[in-house]
Design brief:
It is built from seven helices and six strands, in the order βαββαβαβααααβ. By secondary structure, it is of the alpha/beta class. The chain has a single domain, classed as Nucleotidyltransferase, domain 5 (2-Layer Sandwich). A hairpin with a 2-residue loop joins strand 2 and strand 3. The two termini are about 30 Å apart.
Length: about 240
């Protein structure tokens, strides 16, 4: 089936998220109380819980992966055009502005006959996170993202991690592992997902996060090409817009 999908009809994407505040102590009281409840569940499910007693504040750095307690600071996208990969990022401190720019781009992409979205672990993370934060910010969910009323075969959301599973639902494979497996340059040569919150809130280095997010997009696109038996895109074939 994959060989029948034209890569030029795919919009590749990756998002970076952080906790809504820099520290647990800065949470508004209602959210602090609700995070405390969430943290109890997380600590109970943590395999290391018996070895080290943790508090809601100590695990607050995890909050960014939950759409109820986090925010999006960067969305990077990639499209194939004229044998090149064109990468564009939407980023900043204002989540609503990022999402508005991204949704405007999605609508234009649909007009240009883009049929698919593709992310790594996108069905578990990127797609639902984007939809949830759009709703929170009062933004209409673009048709290509919206799942409401659609049958499974009408949802054109590709996921390189799911494609690699081949039905093995107990298997999680990171983008970094698959990149190394297929001889693709690792996108984790500077920071990885666990560093993003600190780089944003402590180092205030958003450009470093954008560069990391863009590397992930290129890796996802390269991985899809390898799944199709095609060569990867060389760095001199990448255009940043």
């Amino acid at each position: 089936m994959l060989e029948n999908i034209n890569p030029e009809t795919i919009l590749f994407l990756d998002i970076e998220t952080v906790p809504m505040t820099s520290r647990y102590e800065e949470l508004p009281d209602p959210f602090k109380r609700l995070w405390d409840k969430k943290a109890v569940q997380l600590i109970k499910s943590d395999k290391a819980a018996d070895e080290e007693k943790k508090t809601p504040g100590e695990i607050f750095q995890r909050a960014g992966i939950y759409a109820e307690f986090g925010k999006i600071i960067c969305i990077s996208t990639g499209i194939f055009r004229n044998n090149s990969l064109w990468i564009k990022s939407f980023y900043g401190d204002g989540e609503k502005e990022i999402l508005l720019e991204f949704t405007e781009m999605l609508e234009k992409a649909r007009e240009k006959r883009f049929q698919y979205l593709c992310a790594h672990n996108g069905k578990e993370f990127d797609y639902p996170y984007l939809i949830r934060r759009m709703l929170v910010n009062g933004i209409k969910v673009p048709a290509i993202l919206d799942l409401a009323g659609k049958k499974p075969w009408e949802v054109n959301h590709l996921d390189t991690m799911e494609l690699w599973k081949f039905g093995d639902f107990k298997n999680y494979t990171s983008l970094e592992l698959l990149a190394n497996l297929f001889g693709i340059a690792s996108p984790k040569d500077d920071i990885d997902g666990g560093d993003v919150a600190a780089v944003y809130w402590e180092d205030h280095d958003l450009q470093r996060i954008v560069a990391y997010c863009q590397k992930d997009v290129k890796t996802i696109a390269d991985l899809f090409l390898r799944f199709q038996g095609k060569p990867v895109i060389q760095e001199n074939q990448v255009t940043y817009v």
